[in-house]
Specification:
Layout lengths: L1 E4 L5 H29 L4 H13 L4 E4 L1
Length: 65
């Protein structure tokens, strides 16, 4: 779970969340994504970014207001 303060959702925090998500995606699906990108001639970084954003929806957020 990720604990955030409501006032802490600035650009830096959003970038940190995306970076964390991107690392998780690399760990879980890195080989599969690389194989797919190579096979279909697509940009690997773009695919990782898209999957990282999708992965953010699986996070459980707790806001302390």
């Amino acid at each position: 779970m990720i604990y955030l303060n409501f006032t802490d959702l600035n650009e830096e925090t959003q970038e940190r969340l995306i970076a964390n998500s991107k690392e998780e995606v690399k760990e879980k699906y890195g080989k599969d994504i690389m194989d797919y990108a190579t096979k279909h001639n697509t940009n690997l970084n773009k695919m990782l970014d898209e999957e990282a954003l999708r992965n953010l929806y699986s996070y459980k957020y707790i806001f302390n207001v």
